[in-house]
Specification:
The chain is of the alpha/beta class. The protein contains 8 helices and 7 strands; from the N terminus they run βαβαβββαβαβαααα. A 5-stranded parallel sheet has the order 2-1-3-6-7, sandwiched between helices. Strands 4-5 form a two-stranded antiparallel ribbon. Helix 2 runs parallel beside helix 3, helix 6 crosses helix 7 and helix 7 crosses helix 8. The longest helix has 15 residues.
């Protein structure tokens, strides 16, 4: 096994647990908590697998996908997030990630994502139930936040919403579909 793997997550506890769990399964693993350190480790070790958090201390992990693929073109990137949205999932896959998983996630799901041979199956039949107004609001906020590269103030201005109100909405768990 011993696939060189890079874990990029700004939560030191989650990062350490994930690194340790992958090491126990035979992977060579390095952990980074911020983008600059992650890119330095990627240049040094050329990981073939990357676990990437979507939100890195307020900056978007999506911005790292192309840089990581430039360093190691065969790299398989799995994006993790505590704030899943359709817009960011689509963006992650378009940028080159192989999978997009919502936290909390089991280590087995991450490993399975790395080992899948084909692209993720997004050909899911639409639900007969329409999305709730709360879910539509959540999706719209996530799309505008992504368009503003994770900048809360710019997103609040674009949504014509007070910054604190936006922060309160973002601190809640995503609304169920």
């Amino acid at each position: 096994m011993s696939e060189p793997t890079l874990v990029i997550d700004d939560d030191p506890s989650f990062n350490a647990i994930l690194v340790r769990s992958l090491e126990r399964r035979g992977y060579s693993v390095w952990g980074a908590g911020e983008p600059a350190a992650a890119l330095a480790l990627a240049r040094e070790f050329s990981p073939t697998r990357v676990v990437l958090d979507l939100n890195l201390n307020g900056s978007s992990g999506l911005a790292l996908i192309q840089e990581l693929l430039h360093i190691e073109p065969d790299c398989r990137i799995v994006v993790l997030t505590g704030y899943a949205s359709i817009a960011t999932a689509v963006d992650a896959i378009k940028l080159g990630a192989i999978q997009y998983l919502a936290k909390p996630v089991e280590i087995e799901a991450i490993i399975a994502a790395f080992e899948q041979d084909e692209a993720p199956d997004f050909d899911v039949p639409p639900s007969d139930e329409p999305l709730s107004v709360d879910r539509l609001e959540w999706e719209h906020i996530q799309r505008v936040l992504n368009e503003n590269d994770g900048n809360i103030s710019a997103t609040a201005r674009a949504l014509k919403m007070h910054r604190r109100t936006l922060q309160r909405k973002l601190s809640k768990r995503p609304v169920r579909i």
